[in-house]
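Tip: read the tokens left to right.
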């Protein structure tokens, strides 16, 4: 018997077997439905979670490329440290505070207890408890990454880590509970699908307060309003970081569907992927075109931040927009970057990587744009959410920064800043051969 005949015979027998056991097959499918949904939804959390975890590498490479070579080791150290601190703090107190405390649930903080992740999840619901915790934890870590880039090149390591612990263990979970923990913002109809406000603007507000209280880098601003550009060490590294962030964002937004057990869920995830990609692409193109028109030359850093601003903007509602609306929302994110970066310089707010326009301002825009495509949202509820989160995060972050400043100090000495934090704080240079003009041996 020839090979194609064998395949035909096997297919015929298979069809006959299925046709002859319709009842048994239907019963088996019904019995497996809950397990299948449980497995697929848990898998979505896990895959989305490790994609968002990879964004930590994106933030590290973006920041390493946009700071000067004498501060690259410090940025790499800060990024791996903040991810680790966020992971511990969110387990110790953050998760339970976000979902079982504050306004959202059973009273105020009480006695913080670590998140319990059972060995088996037979009665846990529609997904594994560990998969949910991991997915929520990497969102928390992303919030701290936003702060790291803004205040680079002049912040001491340990005050930054202390602030990160408070941000990820207390500040982020409290405001997150207002919406994702079924708190009062959720009650008034506020909608933030994957965190334009709850993650990105939260990090942006914390970064803004840090930049104001810390002050600008030495030499950044001169007399008579003069602004001195301080180029980064590596555009290729910054570009790599942006592509990694773009890649990880599919987990950020797609995973926020929070279920993959039905055809509808999978269709929604695929639509989210399309809109996320279109918004980022629009942010890039708009930033390139605008810099060419306004400055007569294209700016690659504006293009990179245009992509990120488009991603942040679509994050508040990546499911309901049509492709055209996704392009519009992301494109306006690119506009925000081009005009907000010089605005901050005029205000003498030194944001090394442009995180405040990207995460704070584009996050606000994306949150306020939700009612344009989602009829369940209202501009009133969205505005209340933006203002409430902004006030709480700004006030609490400013208080923590000021306490740190008046106690242990937050800024390195002028000598250390001039020499570079790699030597003064870390003791390991990122590019020793380059820095010394020859071999390190």
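Filled-in amino acids:
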């Amino acid at each position: 018997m020839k090979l194609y005949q064998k395949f035909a015979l096997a297919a015929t027998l298979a069809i006959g077997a299925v046709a002859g056991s319709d009842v048994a097959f239907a019963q088996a499918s019904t019995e497996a439905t809950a397990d299948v949904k449980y497995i697929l939804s848990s898998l979505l959390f896990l895959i989305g979670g490790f994609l968002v975890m990879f964004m930590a590498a994106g933030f590290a490479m973006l920041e390493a490329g946009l700071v000067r070579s004498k501060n690259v080791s410090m940025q790499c150290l800060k990024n791996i440290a903040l991810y680790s601190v966020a992971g511990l703090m969110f387990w110790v107190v953050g998760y339970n505070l976000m979902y079982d405390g504050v306004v959202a649930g059973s009273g105020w903080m009480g006695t913080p207890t670590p998140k319990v992740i059972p060995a088996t999840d037979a009665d846990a619901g529609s997904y594994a408890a560990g998969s949910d915790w991991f997915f929520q934890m990497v969102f928390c870590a992303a919030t701290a990454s936003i702060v790291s880039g803004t205040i680079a090149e002049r912040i001491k390591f340990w005050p930054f880590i202390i602030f990160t612990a408070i941000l990820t263990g207390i500040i982020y979970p409290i405001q997150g509970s207002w919406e994702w923990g079924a708190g009062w913002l959720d009650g008034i109809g506020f909608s933030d699908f994957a965190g334009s406000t709850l993650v990105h603007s939260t990090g942006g507000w914390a970064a803004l307060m840090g930049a104001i209280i810390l002050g600008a880098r030495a030499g950044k601003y001169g007399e008579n309003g003069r602004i001195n550009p301080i180029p980064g060490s590596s555009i290729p590294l910054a570009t790599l970081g942006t592509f990694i962030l773009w890649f990880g964002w599919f987990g950020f937004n797609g995973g926020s569907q929070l279920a993959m057990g039905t055809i509808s869920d999978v269709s929604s995830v695929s639509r989210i992927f399309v809109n996320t990609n279109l918004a980022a692409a629009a942010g890039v193109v708009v930033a390139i075109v605008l810099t060419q028109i306004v400055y007569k030359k294209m700016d690659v850093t504006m293009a990179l931040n245009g992509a990120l601003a488009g991603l942040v903007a679509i994050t508040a509602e990546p499911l309901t927009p049509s492709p055209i609306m996704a392009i519009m929302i992301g494109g306006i994110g690119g506009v925000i970057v081009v005009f907000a970066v010089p605005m901050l310089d005029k205000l003498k707010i030194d944001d090394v990587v442009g995180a405040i326009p990207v995460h704070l301002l584009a996050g606000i825009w994306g949150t306020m744009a939700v009612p344009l495509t989602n009829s369940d949202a209202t501009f009133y509820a969205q505005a209340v959410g933006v203002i409430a989160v902004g006030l709480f995060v700004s006030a609490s972050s400013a208080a923590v920064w000021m306490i740190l400043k008046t106690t242990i100090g937050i800024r390195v000495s002028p000598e250390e800043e001039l020499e570079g934090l790699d030597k003064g704080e870390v003791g390991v240079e990122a590019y020793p051969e380059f820095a010394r003009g020859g071999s390190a041996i």
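The radius of gyration is 24 Å. Residues 37-435 form a domain with the Ammonium transporter fold fold (CATH 1.10.3430.10).
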